[in-house]
Amino acid sequence: MKRILLLGGVTEALAIARTLGPQHIYSLAGIGRVPTDLTCQVRVGGYGGAEGLAQFIREQGIDLLLDATHPYAAQISHNAAHAARACAIPCWALRRPAWQPQAGDDWREVADWAELIQALKPFRRPLFTLGREPLQHLHEIPPEQFWTLRALDIYPGNERCEVIGARGPFHIEGERELFERRRIDVLVSKNSGSTATEPKLEVARERGVPVLILQRPVLAEVDREFGTVDEVLQGLRHLV
């Protein structure tokens, strides 16, 4: 099999990595947990942009770049596609299908942080599930609001914000308890498409809580796109 560089960032990437042999490389940014039980090589850290990634591809003799980063990691996906083109190798991508609203949902899509802040004005107790980004805006919290932020790790909040460190998969009972205890009146989320974090949407639907959805970014074009791990693995089986 040709040598693969797998760029991780979502749960499904680890499932792919577990099928790779020792000649392949699983690359992580280092924000989440780093697995220690894989047969393939594991690399942690950045590359210094598309040019640095291209240099690594050449040095390591990579034949296929597989982008399994987060749907909102637009810059990384752009760098991957650019580096693969520069090295004349194919770039494949695992891209989860987006969640779709169901009956009873009250979803309101916002394009960026400025639109989000405007959309939040009628609410008092939002739950943010955007990762670390809201931490940069704690000084913007209006006096009538109290924010609950959920991220992978615990970070300092302030008198109008508490940060919860938690990692999925999340379960509906726990999400119900969180919404009740924090008196959440609006959910703020990316449309990650992940089953591990989907229960929060079910609880919002049950409680009639609106959901402010941050639009997915436009990602770079690649040679092949896959929607599931099984599709990726089937494609890899046909590599010589």
In short:
With 240 residues, the chain is of the alpha/beta class. The protein folds into 2 domains: 4-97 and 219-237, 3-Layer(aba) Sandwich (Rossmann fold); 107-214, Rossmann fold. It contains 7 helices and 12 strands.
Give the topology, please.
Layout: E1 4-7, H1 11-17, E2 25-28, E3 41-44, H2 49-60, E4 64-67, H3 74-86, E5 91-94, E6 107-110, H4 113-120, E7 126-129, E8 147-151, E9 161-165, H5 172-182, E10 186-190, H6 199-207, E11 211-214, E12 224-226, H7 229-237
List keywords for this structure.
240 residues; Rossmann fold; six-stranded parallel beta sheet; 29% helix
Structural description of this entry:
The chain has 240 residues and is of the alpha/beta class. It has two domains: 4-97 and 219-237, Rossmann fold (3-Layer(aba) Sandwich); 107-214, Rossmann fold (3-Layer(aba) Sandwich). 29% of the residues lie in helices and 21% in strands. The chain is built from seven helices and twelve strands. It has helices at residues 11-17, 49-60, 74-86, 113-120, 172-182, 199-207, 229-237, and strands spanning 4-7, 25-28, 41-44, 64-67, 91-94, 107-110, 126-129, 147-151, 161-165, 186-190, 211-214, 224-226. The strands form two sheets. The chain has a six-stranded parallel beta sheet, sandwiched between helices. Strands 6-11-10-7-8-9 form a six-stranded parallel beta sheet, sandwiched between helices. The longest helix is centred in the middle third of the chain and has 13 residues, at 74-86. The termini are close together. 33% of the residues are buried.
